[in-house]
Amino acid sequence: MLLATALQAVVSLRLVPRADGRGRVPGAEVLINSAAVADNMRDIEKALSIIRQVYEVMVVDTRAALSDDVLAFLDASDLILEVLAYDSMAIRALAMADEAFATIGYPPSKLEAVLNRSDSTGGFTKADVEEALNRKIEHEVVSDGKLVIAANNEGVPFVLANPDAPVSQGVRAMAASIAARLPGRMAALARH
User: Fold this and answer.
1) pLDDT tens, residue by residue, 6-43
2) Domain segments of the chain: what residues?
3) Distance in angstroms (rounded) separating the CA atoms of residues 50 and 58
4) Assuming Cys at both sites, which of 22, 30, 106, 186 could form a disulfide with 101, CB separation 3.0 to 4.6 Å?
5) What's the CA gap between 160 and 154, in Å, rounded?
6) Cα distances (Å, whole numbers) of residue 169 to 23, 155, 158, 166, 175
């Protein structure tokens, strides 16, 4: 499926400085798909194809729904990171996604689970989650809302804002683990 036909809109949200200089306010831009936008999207698809030839790693963040356009991205992926938290609905959703992926024919080696906010257990343990999913949790990232939000508001990746923070170390460990799985792309992941 072409992105140009699947895309409905692109929403960009960020905090922008107030005109009076006192703080920031939410700003949003919405691009609604139209014939002209679809034509431009075809150009973007070409650009993505070129980007894939130039860069060793490309990350695409999709919505959780397994729609045709999301599945098209997932089909083309070398690795799918499934993110969940210690939340019964998230655990159930990941279990259902895994069933769908098995039905589609994705090998288990294409999937890795990321336990986000792993220090906020919510009454579950990692072992409980692994048992419920009948699989291993490959990656863990702890909470640090203060750092993540502040860095986001400043437009700086939190791993650069505070590289020694546990959340930054968790993301770096995940990148190193992924780099080891994708040896042809290891140099790009190891640099960051």
Assistant:
1) 555 555 556 677 778 777 776 666 656 566 656 655 66
2) 1-54
3) 11
4) 106
5) 12
6) 30, 19, 10, 5, 10
What confidence tens digit (pLDDT) does each residue in 110-137 have? 999 999 999 987 888 999 999 999 999 9
DSSP bridge pairs for 11 = 30
Give dist(CA 59, CA 51) in Å, integer. 11
Q: 184: which 2 tokens?
A: 């042809």
Structure tokens at 86: 């210690």
User: What's the rounded Cα separation, in Å, for the pair 184 and 52?
Assistant: 13
Q: From the CB of residue 71, how many other CB atoms can be counted at a distance below 10 Å?
A: 16
What tokens does 26 get?
């939410």
**Angstrom distance (rounded) from CA 166 to CA 170:** 6
Residues in Cβ contact with 152 at an 8 Å cutoff, skipping those fewer than 6 apart: 158
Instruction: Give the Å distances, CA to CA, from 15 to 28, 34, 75, 170.
Output: 9, 27, 34, 26
pTM above 0.90, yes or no: no
Contact 66, 97 (CB under 8 A): yes
